[in-house]
Amino acid sequence: MKKTIYFFSLIAVLLVLTVFVAALTGVSAQAFAKGEKSLSTFNSRSAFLIDCQTGEVLYERNADARYPIASMVKIMTLSIVFDEIEAGRLSVDDVITVSEEAAGMGGSQMFLDAGSEYRLGDLIKGVTVASANDASVAIAETISGSKEAFIELMNEKAAQMGLNDTKFVNVTGLPGEGQYSTARDVTKMLSNLIKHPAYFDYSTIYMENFTHPGGRVSELVNTNKLVKFYKGCDGGKTGFTRDAMYCLSATAKKGDMRVIATVLGAETSQLRNKEISSMFNFAFANYNSVTLMEKGVPVDAEITVKGAKTGKIKVETDKNLSILESRGEKGEYKLETEILPDLKAPVKKGDRIGTVRVVSQKTKDIKCEAALLAAEDIDRRSLGDSLEIIMDNWFMGI
Predict the structure, then answer these.
(1) Which end of the chain is more exposed for a tag (fewer CB within 10 A), N or C?
(2) If you classify domain 34-287 with CATH, what class do you get?
């Protein structure tokens, strides 16, 4: 059974551009004013840009070419540790004893003391902010018992996420034969990571003095400079080795719109920041993300549930129902529902009762869809309720 709930028009509001004045990037939002539809001056190996709400690709170049990604492998490490925390198997307050192997890692580090005890939350901070190899190994050993077992877990997770062009051979991103990914896959990894709200507790830190158990102090500085120098950027992960060159996958939010931009193989850190900033500017200048139904927010709907006490029930969606519009363009859409056949009361809150779709009135295309859930218990109509309805209808007819 299909039913149209309501019709409405969405009129995009013209964006008032502000000039981004950071010496770090030197990129002006004005360079991507309305009407600019391409990003053709990129010099990095590959690039990828998506809108997070809809998953729509806004720009891609050489996005499926396999390259080393250096420390961006730690995006997967962070995804796994936040999964473990969310599942209740770990807590940020868990105390971890750092092994000699973890403390002895070279490259970027937070200078952990072997044999000392650290909170898991502090190790997460070290990985997120300072790209700490020692903290990354300590986390891997905590979760899987060894680096080798954790690498297997990383590759299992990659397969589950559909990262068909990604392979991990270590947990640090240091040069390793046969380790690679793509701009598209890295973007998918970061998309998964930012689903954990707790990630942003760490990713927004730019600089912090960290006190070790023995009282020694290390300064942690975020390797993602755009957290400080690009307004709206609140997360991401850098990477650099001689083979990988300069890499960055970062996310930024403006209004209701969140995007992820990824660059692999830039010649300098300044260039990777400039190209990421260019993609951010391009997205926010040319597109507008509109959420039509927000996940978990109930709305009233006239939907027939056989045997229910009322025909007006509250419904909600299992995810945000969002569309992406080009700025300055008028879009006309309608919400259509397809209710499960033979839907009968009682129905419990959270039960799936059908599907809701956003349909373009102009092209008739389905723009997006979500599961439609009952936002409240729907009780079965009793004999007394039925008699009351009959009497009401009788009096209405007099």
Answers:
(1) C
(2) alpha beta
Peptide bond before residue 68 is cis, with ω within 30 degrees of 0: no
- Could you give the CA distance from residue 71 to residue 247 in angstroms, rounded to a whole number? 9
Q: Are 50 and 257 in contact (CB under 8 A)?
A: no
The residues, any chain, with a CB within 8 Å of residue 59's CB and separated by 6 or more, are 39, 47, 48, 49, 279, 282
Q: For residue 23, give the nearest of 171, 233, 225 by alpha carbon.
A: 225
What number of CA atoms fall less than 13 Å from residue 221's CA on the CB side? Answer: 4
- Considering the chain, tell me which residue range(s) the CATH 2.60.410.10 domain(s) occupy: 294-383
DSSP 14: P
Cβ atoms of 302 and 337 within 8 Å: the answer is: no
pLDDT in tens, 302-332: 777 888 777 678 899 998 888 898 887 767 8
* Beta bridge mates, 300: 314
pTM of the model: 0.83
> Catalytic residue positions?
71, 74, 131
Please write the tens of the pLDDT for every residue from 75-123. Answer: 999 999 999 999 999 999 999 999 999 999 989 999 999 999 999 999 9
| Count helices and strands in the chain by DSSP H and E runs | 10, 17
Delimiting residues of CATH 3.40.710.10 domain(s) in the chain:
34-287
Structure-token match 């070279």, residue found: 106
Domain 294-383 class in CATH: mainly beta
